[in-house]
Amino acid sequence: MSSPFPKMAFATGWVQAVQSSPAFLTVCDENFRIVFQNHFQPGVDDPCGTSIFGWFPSEHHEKVRQCLSEARASGRPQTYELEGTGPDGLVSKYSSWVTTLSLPTGELGFGIISTDTTQMERVEDALSETASTLKSVVENAPDDIAAVDRQHLLVFLNRSPEKEDFAGRPFESLLPEQAREDAYRAIEKVFASGEPTSFDVFREEAGGFRYFTTRLGAVRNGEEIDKVVLITTETTLQVLAQTAREDAQLQQRELLEQLHQSQKMEAMGQLTGGVAHDFNNLLTIMLGNLDALIRRKGLSEDQRQLVENAKTAGSRATNLTQRLLAFSRRQTLSPQVHSLSTIIQELRPLLERALPNHVELKFRLSNLPLYAEVDRTQLENSLLNLVINSRDAIEEHGWISIELNSKPSDASTLHDEWIELAVEDSGHGIEADSLDRVIEPFYTTKDVGEGSGLGLSMVYGFVQQSQGKFSLESEPGKGTRVRLLFQAVSSVDFPPETLPRERLMPRGSGELVLVVEDSSLMRRLAVQQVVELGYKAKAVSSGTQALEVVHAGLCPDIVMTDYLLPGGVTGVELVRQLREKFDGLPALIVSGYADLHQRPEVLQRVGAHLLGKPFELVDLAQALSSSLAARRETDDSP
To answer: From the CA atom positions of the chain, what is the Rg in Å?
Structure first.
């Protein structure tokens, strides 16, 4: 049967459109014979006149027949879907739309439009799978992802720890109070400029603080920004790591500053110690000659007074050198175990007398005796210096507090316990740029002529030399607090405090003293004093000369030598070599340094006594007598 459609007066353009349509258009009569079809495979006969069911697998015939019958009975369009496997083994799906129409012959017919939905469904399936994957990724992302509209209301939130529906709530309500203003400004910035930005958030929780960074970006609908997406990442570990790095860098800088300060103080200590040592030699000469002069007969009262004044000035100069040696940790100390509570209580009247009426002195002392091994005189001088410094810092009414307590050891030391002696005042304090310098010798914050600048440096050196710790805290207008820490010791079986010695002047009986001193002035003074005390003297300028005269036949009864000698032979080495020749030879080493006091084993090995510079004639007399007496006791022993 030929198609009636070529005989119809259809517009040429319409026919071309139908022929080129991707859909399958089929027209059949009421007996289901095809009268028109726009597509058929090349090489296949014209389908017109064939049954429509020849184009479907038999299992679909009933579905198609029923759909056509329902369209004819109801007069309304109907749809049906079919699928089948092609020669290539792929499953194809079709969706068909069926309606009734009148054929040009006047008969009732059917119009069928079929669309291949296979590719569309595959695209939809792929899109659905992609959307599902994307949803899973977003919901399981380690970050919190949200989107807000122009009113800052949530339109999306990937997850909620509280399992609540946050849609329509202000985004800022999810944040701690202190971060809401930052969030508001950041969202508005993105809506205004379209440029990405960020802000930081922290939350305080039971275990501490947690830190977050929120990054924001624009979501565009064409040219218009209608949403902002916010991605929040926890940065706690990064913040803690950065804080740790900054703390480590700060600690490193502080350690370097401490090292530089320590090196500077050490260099200054070596300089001041060397100056003080040399000055002690000069003072020994000056005081020795003044002492010899004042003992002469025939001096008028005016002459005697002049000598006394010069001797007083020399004594004051001696105190200054002792302070310099204290700072450089080279002063001669006589440490013994003392109760610090007892020392402070006994010093209390002197401290109170040193203060004017407008300054109140407070004591906060532990009830325990608190024992430490210190030089009592130096500790008393240190405490008096600190109280006087505090007094000078108080212009009107104020107070000074002296505290004494035990303090547990920290992890930086193996020592069990410390004793803390603290002096605090309500004075004007110290400026920050002066804090690191106040312990330097001759540096003072007082007006010209009101301080030597040696008080705190002496305290610092004394504490360091006593294996203690020194710290100073101050702020302008809020006073100053100085803390001295000493190692605590047990009170059991400590040696009793030495009683003040009697100022006797023992004399010699013509014993020969070998004097070894490189300074010509000191050498002459030593010979003069030794002879005045009833001894004979032989003087040389070096250890090498001393050994030469001994090898030449000199037999001294005692050797009196300086510690530092030219030629590479120290006083200790000289004594050692002389004792190899003269077993048990008494020896007296004279020195202005504290090194030998801090290392008594050095003197014990060579059997020598120590006399510190500067010294008076009575000191030399007792030192020579004690050294010779020790030899006699050894000789008399069975």
So the answer is: 54
